[in-house]
Amino acid sequence: MKDEISEIVNVENLVYKKTPLMTDNILSYCPGCGHGTAHRITMEVLEELGIGENTIGIAPVGCSVLAYEFMNIDMQQAAHGRAPAVATGIKRTWPHKIVFTYQGDGDLAAIGTAETIHACNRGENIVIIFVNNGIYGMTGGQMAPTTLPGMKSSTSPYGRDVHIMGNPLKMTELVAELPGTRFVTRQAVHTPGNVRKAKRAIKKAFENQINFKEGVNFVEIVSNCNSGWKMTPVHSNEWMVENMFPFYPLGDIKVDGELVNK
User: Fold this and answer.
1) 15 pLDDT band (50/70/90 cuts)?
2) Which residues neighbour 84 within 8 Å (Cβ) at sequence distance 6 or greater?
3) Among 52, 56, 144, residue whose Cα is nearest residue 93
4) Which of 65, 168, 198, 218 has the smallest CB count inside 10 Å?
């Protein structure tokens, strides 16, 4: 009787329970990194939609390559930048599977630019989750295509000079212009409110795929890289808000195949 009462009390007072679609492995990301939160809300969405057993995730090279250690679903690793191509093959082979890629900016917007653009232009019925921290986080903090003007990195120690190094690439705005994209949005996970918005966006993306609505669902998550930026986690989030968000503004860019506010 005591055990039954204890169990009831525990259930009634349960505030949060880890989704079973996350493994018990300890996250190996740097403390303060947004990847862990992005992983969690993605897996929570799959659990809530009841599609975990029917989903295949593709993780390429970069910090995102660690995803298969933490996501308790079928996962496939891809060569650097090739996740959209692999996702295309899997989705076309098993059209009733739910397929998504999880990619960083050095992967999706650099070596994988062609695969990203062509998958989006073809309108593949997949979800692309794109974590943008403006730097190559895993390989030494080099400048990425998304590095801001004036932003320092290990290969631009005096800041990105756009006259020499070119302008940052706004991949999300770029793919939103393609006819093959259905839902394109940019979110963040640095505060509870933003986490809820990001989760709703990811849920909408997967719901579109579940309902066989044609087109790519593209969710960018602007994140920090406190190790690569050489900042504390708190400072990196503050820097992100002050510098990344003005250049990469949050919000929906394309909904149900129509550009927002255009």
Assistant:
1) confident
2) 101, 112, 115, 116, 118, 119, 120, 124, 126, 128
3) 56
4) 65
129: phi then psi, degrees, rounded to nearest 5: -105, 120
Pick from 15, 57, 16, 62: nearest CA to 39: 57
The pLDDT value recorded for residue 12 is: 67
Domain count for the chain: 1
Give the domain CATH number at 107: 3.40.50.970
Which residue segment(s) compose the domain that 67 sits in?
18-259
Question: What is the per-residue pLDDT for 197?
Answer: 98
Residue 135 carries which DSSP code? B
Does residue 150 belong to any structural domain of this protein?
Answer: yes
* pLDDT tens figures, 164-187: 999 999 999 999 999 999 999 999
- Round to whole Å and give the CA distance between 224 and 235: 10
